[in-house]
Amino acid sequence: MTDILIAPKLPVICKDRTTRHSALSAMAEEYRVVCACKAVSITATGPAVSQCLCHCTDCAEVYQMTPAGFVLFPADQLCINTGKEKLKAFSQKTPSLKRYFCEDCGFKTHHTRDGIPLVGTLSNNLPGFDFQPQVHLYCKSAPADRLQAYAGDGSTKFVDMPKEFGGSGEQMTC
Question: Residue 145's pLDDT is what?
Fold first, then answer.
């Protein structure tokens, strides 16, 4: 069986699943994202790089919730197991941000951003994942009373995004 690895700005790479997993620790975590119609199945293996809450207007419109909780994995840890041909992508207001969804049921599976070798998926797409957000993004878009609810959570709150992700890196307090 062959899996397809998704990486922004890189060609699609095929790897043999058994080879890839044999290099990982037997204790490696594995999370599966399956769309509503079960045509698309994606596996994220290994620890997440970050857990974020995004307050941007794009996420609010696309996911119909704000903030949107998502988990970031290195691109080489996310594999499409089934349904690659069913995945379609779109961009909202940010052309460099690609959101992937199943063309049959519309389920949003993951997203990538040009130039950043990470792949994100909504935290509620990962059954059993203990979501503990460490970072808030686009806090300037959030109403002050909503941010106040996160005042004592110990997470870093960015006005937009960290510099490494193309943002200003400016932080704010609640």
Answer: 85
Q: 14-18, 67-71, 117-121 — which is least confidently predicted?
A: 14-18
Evaluate if residue 14 carries a pLDDT over 90: no
Which tokens is 130 given?
A: 């203990």
Per-residue model confidence (pLDDT) at position 51: 94
Q: Helix/strand/coil (H, E, C) string of the chain?
A: CEEEECCCCCCCEEEEHHHHHHCCCCCCCEEEEECCCCCCEEEEECCCCEEEEECCHHHHHHHCCCCEEEEEEEHHHEEEEECHHHEEEECCCCCCEEEEEECCCCCEEEEEECCEEEEEEEHHHCCCCCCCCCEEECHHHCCHHHHHCCCCCCCEEECCCCHHHCCCCCECCC
72 residue type, one letter: L
